[in-house]
Each structure stands twice: as C-alpha cells, then as structure tokens.
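Example with several molecule types.
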Amino acid sequence: MLGYVLRRLVATIPVVIVVAVVVFLLARLAGDPASVIAGENATAEQIAQIRNRLGLDQPLLVQFARWSWSIAHGDLGVSIFTNTPVAQLIVQRIGPTFSLAVVTIVLAILLGIPSGVLAAVFVRRVPDRVIMMLAVAGFSIPIFVLAYLLILGFAISWPILPVQGYTPLARGVLPWLGNLILPGLALALVYAALIARTTRAALLDVLAEDYIRTARAKGLLPREVVWLHALKAASVPIATVIGIGIALLVGGAVVIETVFAIPGLGRLTVDAIARRDFPVIQGVILLFSGIYVLINLLIDLSYTWLDPRVRFT
Amino acid sequence: MTEPLLRIDQLRVRFDTPEGVVHAVNDVSFQVGAGETLAIVGESGCGKSVTALSILRLLPSPPARLAGGSIRFQGQELTSLGETALRQLRGDRIGMVFQEPMTSLNPVLTIGRRLTEGLRRHHGLSRRAARERVLALLERVQIPDPSRRLDQYPHELSGGMRQRVMIAIAVACAPSLLIADEPTTALDVTIQAQVLDLIGELCEAMGTAVILVTHDLGVVGDVADRVVVMYAGRVVEDAAVDDLFSRPLHPYTQGLFAARPNLTPTVAGQRARLTEIPGMVPSLRAGVTGCAFAPRCRAATAQCRAQTPLLRPFDSSGHAVACHHAGGDA
Ligand SMILES: Nc1ncnc2c1ncn2[C@@H]1O[C@H](COP(=O)(O)OP(=O)(O)OP(=O)(O)O)[C@@H](O)[C@H]1O
Ligand SMILES: [Mg+2]
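Resulting structure tokens for the full complex:
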C-alpha cells in the first residue's frame, strides 16, 4: 500500500513537468507584461528596460530554466505588480476558496446522493422523472445565471442571506456559512446533478444483482437493503464522480468568486491574467494542478476502502 | 388431516413483458409437510425458480404478477400478506439458498456482517451475542477457522465455502422451511455432495422442511421424500420418491429418467447412451391449449392436443399425474 502510494507519487513527476511547461507557455501567451507595467505612454526604451529587469529579454529556454530552478527550491517567485511573494499571495487567498470548495462539495453530496437514490428506488415513476428533469436543468443552466437567480431570490427579494462578500471562519461559523451558502449552492447544483445521475445509474445496476435478492430474502427493511447493501456496493463510481467534481471545481470557482466578490484564488487568477502577472498565474495554476493530482490519488486510494476487491500492490 | 407446513394451490404467475405476457407458472399445486424434503425437478425454464421465489414474493414486480392461487404457510395466507408481515417470515421462518454463490453475496460486505444482520433483525440480539451465535453456526456448516472468516469478504472464499456461508445465512434463525434453488449447480461435482449432505444434516437436526429445486434426478433419489415434476409452468407429476422412481407415470417423467446418463458401467464396460427427449420446451408466451408436452410425446392423441390434462390422483398413495393416458387408459 505504502509502496503503491510512493510509486504513484513518483509517477506524477512527468505529469508535473508537462504541466509546468504548459503553464509557463500559457503565461507567456497572456501577452507582454512589460507594456502593461510601463503604461500607455511609455517609450520603447522604458519597456525594454522593464523587460530586462524581469528577465523577459532572455531566450525562453533560459527563462524556463530559471523558473524551474526556483520552483524546485520552493520559490514561486514574486508578483511583478505588487512585489509580494506569490506564495504569500496564495496563502492569503486560499482560505475563502477552500471554504467555498468544502461547502460546495458537501452541498453537492447532500443533494446529489439522496436524489439519486430516490430516483433509483422509484425508477421510471414520478420522483425519478422529476429528479432527472431537475438534473438536466442543473446541467444546462450556466453557473452565473444560477448565481444571479439565487441572489435575486434569497438576498434581494427575500433578503435572508448576504448578497456578496466573505467572512472568515474565525469570526463564527454562521456568518461564514451565511456568506458561502449562495455561492456554494450556485456552484453545487451542477455537481449535484452529476452525482445524482451517477448514483441512480450505479444503484440501478446494483439493485438488479442477485445479492440484493439475498438481502431481501433475509428479511431486511427496504431502507437497509438500499442504503447499506446497495449503496456501499455502488460507491466506487459515485466516489469517482465526486472526485472529478472536486477537480472541476476550479473553473466554476473563478466565476463564482467574481460574482459574489469572494477574495479567493479564483479572483487572484483573474486579476493576475488581466495584468499579465505571470509569476502569479504560474504559481496558482501549478498549485491547482498539484491539488488535482493529489485528489486523483486520494480517489484511487478510496477504492480500497470502498471495495474490498480492489487491492494495490 | 392436519394442515401441512406449506400448501400451494392453483398458483399462477405471469410476467408482463413488452413482447407479451409470459405464463411462467400455471395452476401449480403441491404441499410440503413439516420436516419433509420436497424436490422440484424439470428442464430449464419450466418455472421452478419462479415458483420458489414467489413463495416469499421475491420476484421483481413488475414484470412479475401473481395472477391467482393461494400459498398457505403454517396456516397463514402469504399471497395477501403485507410487506411488513412478510419480512418477518423472510430469513426467520423461511430461509433461502440461491443458485449462484458468486453473485448472491454482496462483494463489499464482510461475511460476519451479513450473518449477524438477520439474527439482529429477527431475534434482537446484540452485536456481541450475534457474533457468538454466528461463530457456532459457521462451525456447524464446517467452515474452518470461523473467527477469521467473519472479517473476510466473499471474494476471499472458494465457491463451496461461499455456498456454506449462504446456507449459514439461510438457517441462522432455524427456519421451519428452507428453499434451496439449485444450491449445488454452480459447484464442483466433488463439492456438490458435501453441500447437499450439509443441508440434509442441518435440516434434519432442526426439523426444517426443505424445498430443493434441482435438475439432477440422482440428487432427488438421495435426499428427497417427495418429488414434484414440472413442465412448461405446470406440475405434471407429484409422488413419493420411491413411487416416482419405481413407476414414473407421465411420459415426460419417463423421458427424464431415460435422458439421465447412466453412469454405472455396463457389462461390456460401456456406458448406456443418453436418450434425449426429442423436441423443444414450448414457449410460455401464448397460453397453451391441450397438453404442453403433446408435441414431444410419442403417445399423444387428439385429446391431448385439445384438452389440458389436470393433475389427478392416480392411486391412494398420493401419486398424482397430469396425463390423459397415464397408466394405460384414458
Ligand atoms: N424477469 C422475467 N421476465 C420475463 N420472464 C421471466 C422472468 N423471469 C423468468 N421468466 C420466465 O419464466 C419462465 C420460468 O423461469 P424459471 O427461472 O422459473 O425457470 P427454471 O425452471 O428455474 O429454470 P432453470 O433450471 O434454468 O433455473 C421462463 O420461461 C422465463 O422465461
Ligand atoms: Mg432456476
């Protein structure tokens, strides 16, 4: 098991290298930061000076080598706008994004799994039809439309929740949650729809299995059969789709943080791209890819716990 | 006469499928006395499993539908029983063993979890007490090293071992009736006899009656007290095992005996040839008029094709047959 984890981690090294190259090139594609820093009326000479200071006049290969070298030493570089170390910027902004992610995933699971179970139990009957219709809606409504609808509903027409902003957890669970419920919900619905569909499909497969008949022949209650015997057997695809959801969260978080004015990593990224602040862009994307790789590993490891037939050696 | 343990009367089961209604079980009647072993035999698709599963109402519904008849168990009518009351019978007074030990055990739950569940539900035992009982039970079904097995998963056990676990689950609450649907078909020949012996011993010790669904007439001769022969969803013959073996009355039963590969070597050291019953099992989609076996029967007459023979007593020993011509005359 430990050997497996180590091997998986080693296997991610090439992935990380490829990601680093792509991130590096993408950040360059954002455009020349020197002209942004220098302002509209700058002379060519001033721009050249800035390019020289940032090392942008060096060949790409040299720039990449320098950047990799410092990354390898744990140095993500310094923002070319605020002169703050990128690591420090990330630490400042990670709390709200992490909170948003946790609330979103919890909401998605709480909405998705019971709906999926209900749909499977009442397959092709009214509850199933309604839930699957809502799931299609959850897929097709863009996140920002949903966000504005929720704001309109629960913050303006019926003002029970704040419109925007973020309160750190340190100032109390309720204020923290109050600020995160609407953005979390807006973000969670699409994942809840995904989880519900997967749960339904996986559970339908399992409910047709012989061992469900065995469980019923034993005289168990239908709810014991479904929630204990069947759901556990269906958990691997469900865990997979939850993991994918977490990994996909990043894109949605950028939109939601903007709509709800949450000072998180998404906002940091958007601002950095607008300013072509490439050390920040590179740092944040690298962080996200690291998290992505880690989550994938955790999902795979969860299989051994969910399904005893899976063994990693 | 006292009421038998289980009495099935004119049972009818239909499947509503997109292609039409399947008449899977037609007017099936038989009885099982307390402590008795009844074998149900017949070709694949003749409705043995459907009959067995409908007793505890374990068929998927839809498509399955009980279209008529009565099932009385210990004087209680099961066909009209509510789900809750039925659930109290399942696994407690009536246990079931299924054909496929590979797929009939949930792969993600431990053996111990599954075994203790029924006991805790029906007898309200604590986790600890249930575990004790289960250990004793596993020893009784001859599973070596039972305390280790409790924490294992089905895939860690062999097929025979799994079927022993299935049996342990089925008899955990000492039921009055055990329904075993081809419990050994999926097992190695060497294991089959052991598992059957085990079922026999356990049920004899507990006074449990058994309904044994099987293809194997050899097995029937070894373990059954009575035999019900089914064909195309109907009972065609019902007799005590000795009567059936000494004097099979229905042409289909006679065909089954003839089709049995005789494994005892003949004088010349050769084995007797297997005589197949010619023809195919009829489709159960259309309600059959006349005797369902008539198209395959050498002795079939116009009457056989026109009129469905009913199961009627042939003699006073309780030997019954559904054939117009059984015993030579009409
Ligand atoms: N879910 C179902 N939907 C439609 N028809 C079904 C269904 N289950 C069983 N049947 C039909 O009922 C008939 C009886 O099936 P059953 O499983 O009882 O046969 P069996 O005697 O147990 O055969 P085997 O020896 O192969 O187990 C078959 O013709 C089958 O086509
Ligand atoms: Mg069968």
